[in-house]
Design brief:
heterodimer, A: 349 residues, mainly beta, Jelly Rolls, 2 domains, seven-stranded antiparallel β-sheet, six-stranded antiparallel β-sheet, B: 62 residues, alpha+beta, three-stranded antiparallel β-sheet, 1 helix, 18% helix
Chain lengths: 349, 62
């Protein structure tokens, strides 16, 4: 086909890429859990990369897990034991994600469409919510769902300052399936309201029934008033996007290499880890246990007595191990020592 | 809606090579963690929030 003949009739506009502002909307990447179930805690609990939940109540049990829905991976929350207290500020957060400000700032004042596929085993009103960067302005709408698979799309116009800056902070929050019967409820749906509101007085409190679940995939936020087909990205593409926020350096593999370094003095060794992508901010380092790692030098192996990031950065953080006395200047290799070992770098919002 | 991280055993770390404060070691939600001194890092922001609220004290490194 000659270039001159290409026009709107010759181009399938639905195939244009980079429409979706949501990272891991297909729920493909789960670096933290590797698909294993997690109990949702009172602080942020990641069900998949960039997809979070919380259960602030002291009641019930909410289980999160990467799952499947149709031909896609999904993120599933199940009330494995019913939550009984949703009064005052007690809540089950449903699933939420935090787009970075500089990725969505251009949507201020624009009409956007949020779409997703959700499977439930209950019929009722599923709250869908967008909040401003500071949680001071909220938009709630109830999506009527039936037991089974539902396609949901919501179009709304962001306010002029929904996102406050072109930077690496939180742009806005998208939440699906929030449960609360007091502080975070609003009677107003389909319009922006003041305050931190995530559910409506008509929303179904699905987590109050044991066995109820929400199973979500193909989450997409795009400019315009029309939901276009979900933009499927390759696993590698999605993983690279997720690694801006989280890096799984090693997970469940014995003798997995971490970094090569040298002893600066008789107890402290240093080495750099080159990250696959620039992280959002200097990351926190967390790990399973000191005994799960080892430092190998001069024909011997030592477990660390301390693991910290000694020089922070978004591309090549420097890691310090302390061990029992060795020889300053010796080269060293660091590895995991068993299959329980994991080490993570976290720069999430 | 606070993040509600459970933070204990926070200690100020010092880089032996430079002598400068390098990070904060803490147990956050039961996990050992080394946190950079970066206000944009969510763990550091929460540590500082709890310190300012008087519910967390950062110990000096031994």
């Amino acid at each position: 086909m000659a270039v001159s003949t290409i026009d709107n009739n010759g181009v399938n506009l639905g195939q244009l890429g980079n429409r979706n502002m949501i990272i891991n909307g297909g729920m493909q990447v789960d670096q933290r859990n590797g698909g294993a179930a997690v109990t949702v805690g009172s602080s942020n609990t990641f069900v998949a990369d960039r997809i979070v939940s919380r259960n602030s109540t002291a009641t019930g049990t909410i289980t999160g897990q990467q799952s499947t829905l149709g031909n896609s991976k999904s993120a599933k929350l199940t009330a494995t034991a019913a939550v009984t207290d949703l009064t005052a500020v007690a809540f089950v957060h449903g699933l939420f994600t935090l787009p970075e400000a500089q990725d969505v700032y251009h949507l201020n004042g624009q009409t956007v469409t949020l779409s997703f596929v959700v499977e439930t085993n209950w019929t009722g009103n599923l709250p869908v919510n967008i909040r401003s960067h500071d949680d001071a302005r909220s938009y709630v709408v109830d999506a009527a769902v039936v037991s089974g698979i539902n396609n949901v799309s919501v179009s709304l116009t962001l306010e002029a300052a929904t996102v406050d800056a072109i930077d690496n902070g939180k742009g806005l929050t998208i939440t699906i399936g929030f449960n609360n019967e007091a502080t975070y409820q609003t009677a107003t749906t389909g319009a922006w309201v003041a305050g931190n509101k995530l559910t409506s007085t008509s929303s179904t409190q699905w987590a109050k029934t044991t066995g109820n679940f929400i199973n979500i995939t193909n989450l997409q936020l795009e400019a315009g008033d029309t939901a276009t087909p979900f933009e499927h990205r390759s696993y590698g593409d999605e993983l690279a996007r997720c690694q801006r926020y989280f890096n799984n350096l090693t997970y469940g593999v014995s003798n997995s290499a971490l970094f090569v370094g040298a002893y600066y003095n008789t107890i402290s060794l240093y080495g750099n880890i080159s990250l696959p992508t620039t992280m959002r901010v200097s990351p926190s380092l967390t790990y399973s246990a000191l005994a799960d790692f080892k430092a190998l030098s001069n024909g011997g192996s030592q477990p660390p007595t301390l693991i910290v990031v000694s020089a922070h950065g978004t591309e090549r953080p420097e890691i310090q191990f302390n061990t029992s006395a060795r020889t300053a200047g010796h080269a060293v290799f660091t590895r995991t020592s068993n299959t329980s070992a994991w080490m993570h770098l976290d720069a999430e919002l | 809606m606070e993040t509600n991280m459970n933070i204990t055993d926070a200690t100020q770390g010092t880089d032996p090579m430079s002598g400068d404060p390098s990070s904060i070691q803490a147990t956050i939600d039961g996990q050992l963690m080394s946190v950079p001194l970066d206000p944009s890092n969510r763990h550091y922001a929460e540590i500082m929030r709890q310190v300012e609220a008087g519910t967390l004290v950062i110990a000096e490194a031994e």
